[in-house]
């Protein structure tokens, strides 16, 4: 890279991650024309994407704050950091499961009200504690919706704590299926989970298919006094429906990492200020992984852990490289390779991978190639119907 590549952080990103960017990069939070953006939960939906933008790295899991379709249309890959914050979230889920079950949050808040009661405090504590008799989780049943990086960890650890665990995930990856304890009872109909469990922890992405997944219809199928833990996204739960369920006692407690104006006022709701991934370790892991993914893409065109591009990588051995992001339609690869041979260039290695409606091709070329030949090739590639973006890396 001849000039510095500009990285614009939209949130506070761990120094450990930012420090991985070499001297070829400039970190500038005020940049108006960055090459890449690195962010956490900053809402990019209302933001105009800079024309210079070539890649986005989400230091975290959820990407509902990023306009994915717009990025795909513009040929901008969005990366996230699968699993990098999963342990942090799991620890907070397990903590909250036990703490809410033992009425700790309410008890601790009540103890604060005793400030100023002087020598009466110990006596008031002993008299007041009967309001906060809780339940142990051992022997109870936990339902885990979504058995990905976080859900699988929560399920396995809950078993270790003596719970029975029912899991639901129609799209579980092979990797996660291997990691999940065989003692987790997997169901293929979510209603089976609803009717059996004492606690539910939800670990799915917020996408149109999961919006309001826990709503009146779902609450009506649950046992009375079920506890719901939501460390995924606020929009997964229908706020109006859970407010009613909390009033009626169908839901006994709602523990949410995503409070809003409505949930803050709801009965029996524990509000946590989105702390799931806020551990030093997780912030470092996510920032480092996002920085590595961005640098690999910017320097080699290889794609790892993108949520809108296919994973595609060729070992970078210094050959001049051309990448193309295009529609996933028949004959694209033959059109691309025939353009390469028409300008008398020779292919050393190539890969083509697809994801949904799009595909990504990486081609390594032989020899020293004149700037004018590259120019001619790129012009021809861009003329192919269905081509979104091309890049030359040398
Ligand atoms: N509170 C926090 O700070 C915090 C931190 C990390 C992640 N999150 C949230 O948690 C979510 C899950 O994170 P993860 O790292 O486990 O992601 P992941 O991609 O590893 O797991 C998500 C799982 O959900 C499953 N899934 C998708 N749709 C489903 C459906 N309709 N029903 C059941 N399962 C479904 C997928 O198959 C996958 O196994 C993220 O999308 C994010 O919104 C929150
Ligand atoms: O999806 C995620 O990774 C979490 O919600 C963490 O978000 P944060 O990086 O803003 O803490």
TrEMBL record:
Pathway: Amino-acid biosynthesis; L-serine biosynthesis; L-serine from 3-phospho-D-glycerate: step 1/3. CDD domains: PGDH_like_3. Residues 321-394 form the ACT domain. Gene3D superfamilies: 3.30.70.260, NAD(P)-binding Rossmann-like Domain. It holds the Pfam family 2-Hacid_dh. Belongs to the D-isomer specific 2-hydroxyacid dehydrogenase family. Its EC number is 1.1.1.399, 1.1.1.95. GO terms for molecular function: NAD binding; phosphoglycerate dehydrogenase activity. This is D-3-phosphoglycerate dehydrogenase. Keywords: NAD, Oxidoreductase. It is an enzyme of class 1 (oxidoreductase). The keyword NAD applies. It catalyses: (R)-2-hydroxyglutarate + NAD(+) = 2-oxoglutarate + NADH + H(+); (2R)-3-phosphoglycerate + NAD(+) = 3-phosphooxypyruvate + NADH + H(+). It comes from the Bacteria. It comes from Halolactibacillus miurensis. InterPro entries: ACT-like_dom_sf, ACT_dom, D-isomer_2_OHA_DH_cat_dom, D-isomer_DH_CS, D-isomer_DH_CS1, D-isomer_DH_NAD-bd, NAD(P)-bd_dom_sf.
């Amino acid at each position: 890279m001849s000039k510095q590549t500009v990285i614009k952080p939209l949130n506070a990103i761990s120094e450990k991650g930012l420090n991985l960017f070499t001297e070829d990069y400039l970190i500038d939070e005020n940049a108006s024309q960055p090459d890449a953006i690195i962010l956490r939960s900053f809402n990019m939906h209302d933001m105009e994407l800079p024309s210079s933008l070539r890649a986005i790295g989400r230091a975290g899991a959820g990407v509902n704050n990023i306009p994915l379709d717009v990025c795909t249309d513009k040929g901008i890959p969005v990366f996230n950091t699968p699993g990098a914050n999963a342990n942090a979230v799991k620890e907070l889920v397990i903590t909250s499961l036990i703490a809410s079950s033992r009425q700790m949050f309410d008890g601790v808040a009540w103890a604060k009200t005793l400030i100023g009661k002087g020598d009466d405090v110990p006596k008031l504590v002993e008299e007041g504690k009967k309001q906060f008799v809780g339940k142990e989780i051992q022997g109870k049943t936990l339902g885990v919706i979504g058995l990905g990086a976080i859900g699988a960890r929560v399920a396995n650890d809950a078993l270790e704590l003596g719970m029975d665990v029912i899991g639901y995930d129609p799209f579980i990856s092979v990797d996660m299926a291997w990691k999940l304890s065989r003692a987790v009872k997997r169901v293929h109909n979510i209603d089976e989970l609803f009717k059996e469990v004492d606690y539910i922890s939800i670990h799915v992405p917020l996408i149109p298919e999961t919006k309001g997944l826990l709503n009146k219809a779902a609450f009506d199928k649950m046992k009375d006094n079920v506890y719901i833990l939501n460390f995924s996204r606020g929009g997964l739960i229908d706020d109006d429906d859970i407010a009613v369920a909390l009033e009626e006692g169908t839901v006994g407690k709602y523990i949410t990492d995503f409070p809003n104006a409505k949930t803050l006022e709801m009965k029996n709701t524990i509000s946590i200020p989105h702390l799931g991934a806020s551990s030093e370790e997780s912030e470092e892991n996510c920032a480092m992984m996002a920085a590595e993914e961005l640098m690999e893409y910017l320097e080699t065109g290889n794609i790892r852990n993108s949520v809108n591009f296919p994973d595609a990588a060729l070992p970078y051995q210094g050959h001049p490289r051309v990448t193309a992001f295009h529609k996933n339609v028949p004959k694209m690869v033959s059109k691309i390779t025939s353009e390469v041979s028409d300008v008398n260039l020779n292919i050393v290695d190539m890969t083509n991978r697809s994801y949904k409606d799009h595909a990504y091709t990486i081609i390594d070329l032989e020899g020293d190639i004149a700037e004018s030949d590259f120019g001619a090739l790129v012009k021809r590639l861009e003329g192919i119907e269905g081509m979104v973006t091309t890049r030359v890396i040398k």
